[in-house]
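sorry for the late reply, my laptop died twice this morning and i had to redo everyting from scratch. anyway the thing you sent over, i finally got around to it. pasting the sequence first so we're on the same page, its 126 residues, then the predicted structure underneath. double check i copied it right bc i was rushing
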Amino acid sequence: MAPQAVPAAAFVARPAPSDLPEPLAEPAVADLKLETVLGALSDPLRLRIVRKLLLESESFDHSCGWFGIDRPKSTLTHHFKALREAGVTRQRQYGLERRSQVRVDDLEARFPGLLGLVAAWTPQEP
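ok and here's the structure:
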């Protein structure tokens, strides 16, 4: 039996704090392309990152350290950049730290149900 998609209401975007830095460069909603988004999500590590943000987010956005991924910082930087450039996540610079969040409203508007499939995905243990 195929996994059931998680309803979008299960991962509603958290309200934005009032004093946010501007987001880093990202594609506009109208410029989001399914093939680019799926390409970014085709990497299992990036898929885990997005799923964790959707299902376990504790605040508006999160730094790389919150994910608990045991990889070199340069590798993580590459993966977070790929997600941002594809339009899956939004990143903001807080001093020396970049924090990420999923662009829930933008992705649901452009590709309804996609994030539900990501949230319903069950990762294989490495």
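The chain has five helices and three strands.
thats about all i looked at so far, will dig more tmrw
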